[in-house]
Specification:
The chain is built from ten helices and nine strands. By secondary structure, the chain is of the alpha/beta class. The strands form two sheets. It has a seven-stranded parallel β-sheet, with helices on both faces. A two-stranded antiparallel sheet has the order 8-9. β6, α7 and β7 form a beta-alpha-beta unit. The longest helix is centred in the N-terminal third of the chain and has 27 residues. The protein is globular. The chain binds guanosine-5'-triphosphate and magnesium ion. Guanosine-5'-triphosphate binds next to α2.
Length: 271
């Protein structure tokens, strides 16, 4: 075990205990956290802006935290929806940790808010190991990224409890291999639901909002297993293997997994 692994495990252990505290605090306030993960430019902000706008139209109290290494650009874009939005600057870190979130969630958003969407730093590696106290972890991939991404980033896709295909309006133009993508998702995370979405055409935006609300209603806890594996002293690469083997990376402490709800008739749900 090299030193980097020791440091990494200490950081993860600290984050894990932070996640437990954050979960309890969120539950007390009736807040449900939705963690969005993808590579840079997959369309997290665009989809989130559509979600926030839709939620506002439906009179649902939602808020968003968006994380980046630098700039307030994404918060400015999301604020156009009229929802309460905050920018988290990670100061060069490639992922969010619970400590950063706790600071921003102190007294914010207003009581009565049901959902807080968290746009993680655009990166499919770093944020995957960090439990943020979320109820739903959503991993996104755009149709332009290639069908092999779930295999190349098995932790990000293996620990997701909802996978979202973005920019579906471009699928034909880029000859998106949808069957190949779905087969690869199944290999790292059998049974996980996959939604087709487009921020341009609003395809699937209602479905994502419904899955998020279902997670809030069920009060289900989804805790990435990997952080605990790390404390048990496994090597990093081992986590990837486990995500592969186990097929899913969440321990389920609640009732039925909301992400596995029956597909909607919009044509967005695939698995
Ligand atoms: N055609 C099309 N383009 C999209 C869609 N969603 C996002 N885009 C474009 O893709 C680019 C990146 O989108 P963003 O929403 O900024 O992606 P992001 O994942 O938030 O990026 P980072 O925050 O930098 O990681 C922008 O130029 C968007 O306009 C979509 O559904 N269809
Ligand atoms: Mg963004």
């Amino acid at each position: 075990m090299c030193r980097i692994d020791d440091v990494r495990e200490a950081v993860l252990a600290k984050n894990d205990s932070g996640a437990r505290g954050l979960r309890a605090a969120l539950a007390e306030r009736g807040l449900t956290l939705i963690n969005l993960l993808s590579s840079p430019g997959s369309g997290k902000t665009a989809l989130l802006e559509a979600e926030l706008t839709l939620a506002r139209e439906r009179g649902l109290p939602v808020a968003a935290l968006t994380a980046d290494l630098a700039t307030e650009n994404d918060a400015t874009r999301l604020a156009r929806s009229g929802a309460p939005v905050k920018q988290v600057l990670t100061d060069g870190l490639c992922h969010l940790e619970t400590g950063m979130l706790s600071r921003h969630l102190d007294g914010w958003p207003d009581l009565g808010t049901r959902l807080v969407f968290v746009e993680n730093v655009g990166n499919l590696v770093c944020p995957a190991s960090y439990d943020l106290g979320e109820s739903l972890r959503v991993t996104l991939a755009s149709v332009t990224e290639g069908e092999d991404k779930p295999l190349k980033y098995p932790v990000a896709f293996g620990l997701a409890n909802l996978v979202v295909i973005t920019k579906y309006d471009l699928a034909e133009a880029v000859d998106f291999d949808e069957a190949g993508f779905l087969a690869n998702v199944r290999r790292v995370n059998p049974g996980v639901e996959v939604l087709r979405t487009s921020a341009r055409t609003a395809l699937g935006t209602g479905d994502l909002l419904e899955r998020s609300l279902a997670a809030a209603d069920a009060g289900t806890v989804h805790q990435p297993v990997m952080a605990r594996d790390a404390r048990a002293g496994h090597h990093h690469h081992h986590h990837d293997d486990r995500a592969h083997e186990a097929g899913h990376g969440y321990s389920r402490e609640g009732s039925a997994q909301p992400a596995q709800a029956e597909p909607e008739s919009t044509g967005a749900a695939l698995l």
